[in-house]
Amino acid sequence: MGKRAMANVFRHFREMPMKHPQAGGKKWLLAAALTLLLLTGHSGAAWPAEMIWAPPVLEQLIDEALENNQSLRSRAAQVKALESRAHAAGTLPDPKLGFAVQSLPTDSFAFDQEPMTQKQIFLEQTVPWLSKLDLRSETAAYNAREEEARLEAARLELARDVADAWYELGYVAESQRINDELVELLERIRRDAESGYAVGEGLQQDIFQAEVEHSRLEDEAVRLESRRSTIEDRLHELANRQDRESIDPPSALPEPDFSFSAVSLAKSALARNPDLKELQAAIEGTAAETRLAEKDYFPDFNIRLTYGQREEDRTGRDLPDFFSAAVAMDIPLWHKSKQSSEVAAAIENERSARNRYHDLKTRLPYRISSLAAEIKDSRRRYALYEKELIPQAGQWARSALEAYEVDRVEFDTMIEARIRVLKYRREASRLFYNIYQKRAELEAWIGGALQTGQQKTFHESRGQSHDDQ
Asked: How many structural domains compose the chain?
């Protein structure tokens, strides 16, 4: 028994298939702009076909989150409200219909005493200065575009958060499986060490060391279970679920061998990033506000049409009725404290929007480049673990086992070699899922899914089970 039995334990684990991380201005122009807004406006359930790359399980979670998120529904309703307001802003004010009595003598209040006494009905309409209505509608339309861009950014952020949590769930699930393998391994080691010690072929300290490692792994199992529960709660929160349901972790993801150019991604981000779209709409909207404020130096007109009806006089003579027309206009008498201040404020708002736009436009390519570099580095490290470190650690574990059988290495060296293999597998799993998390973040910054070719799944690309471990 003793070392021979322990050797059989390690051969059993070496021959087991080793599972791996799961590898997936003008009126016509204004009318055209408003029509485009209506055609491109989104309802609460109308989402882009593919916001970020997602396998079926993740895609279902993202769709559920997008459909149920009340904040997104609120923003979508706000977009519709602003679109409707854009039409209303370009419409003339409602006309006024009024009634009046003119030149009624106060001594008798008789309508036939004085020939100038009239019963009047009038119609009044305010007409803003040329192009003011167009500019008001244009400003409101750009406000709708800003809110629509915010809605798009919020969708992408939610999709990214769901993907990040789901991939983290995959890593934790893989860590639990590896930890379970370690627990089973150490239980076998401890039993074999106890058997060896009972027949005088082992040391008692080997038993104690195995028990310490076993207890440490049990503590790790509790921590991983708590972490998994927290992640699942986060996914339920993002999906806005009323009841807790089982969530499947990632399975058979494609091996992360997708390639891309940071330069082309930066160009795509500059064209598609929703935050930039929001700031572009803000620039155009504040520019329209500036032009509108400048138009306030010019007066609005108030047109009034009046019909006055007169009674017969006391001699029985039929008096003709009167028709009157009047035009009134605003006088910008206090323009220095009113109109000029409004123009100055609009100019500063426009300058602020332009500064924020150029700031993000400058920073965005660097952010894209940084994420692309992080993905590239993680891919290189992941390949290093899979192709070199894990196989090398497996060879070390086999060699340490053989040496232990002939009393050439200590117990702790042999057990450390076996544990190191599984630790490296866990670190490879961390890198694997981190690549997908960074990809989701990158796609959120770009404004949509990366276009990549067909990829093999992780298990298809491996074709082996690390038998040397």
From this structure: 2
User: DSSP secondary structure string, 139-155?
Assistant: HHHHHHHHHHHHHHHHH
Does the pTM of the predicted model rise above 0.90?
Answer: no
Pair of tokens at residue 348: 């500063």
Question: For 174-220, what is each residue's pLDDT tens digit?
Answer: 999 998 988 887 777 777 666 666 666 666 676 777 777 778 888 88
> By residue range, what is the domain housing residue 264?
3-91+131-297+335-462
Q: What is the C-alpha separation between 121 and 98, in angstroms, rounded? A: 6
CB 408 within 8 A of CB 417: no
Q: Are residues 242 and 98 in the same domain?
A: no
Residue 365: per-residue pLDDT = 94
| 29: in domain | yes
Q: Are residues 100 and 166 in the same domain?
A: no
SS3 sequence, 241-281? Answer: CCCCCCCCCCCCCECCCCCCCHHHHHHHHHHHCHHHHHHHH
Is 80 within the bounds of a domain?
yes
Same domain? For 293 and 307 the reply is: no
CA-closest candidate to residue 370, choices 256, 266, 259: 266
- pLDDT above 60: residue 140: yes
Q: What is the DSSP letter of 93?
A: P
Residue closest to 305 by CA, chosen among 29, 121, 34:
121
Could you give the CA distance from residue 375 to residue 372 in angstroms, rounded to a whole number?
Answer: 5
**For residues 73 and 79, what is the distance between their CA atoms, to the nearest angstrom?**
10
| CA distances, 155 to each of 150, 152, 201, 272, 313 (Å) | 9, 5, 64, 14, 76
Q: Is the pLDDT of residue 463 over 60?
A: no
Q: Are residues 116 and 180 in the same domain?
A: no
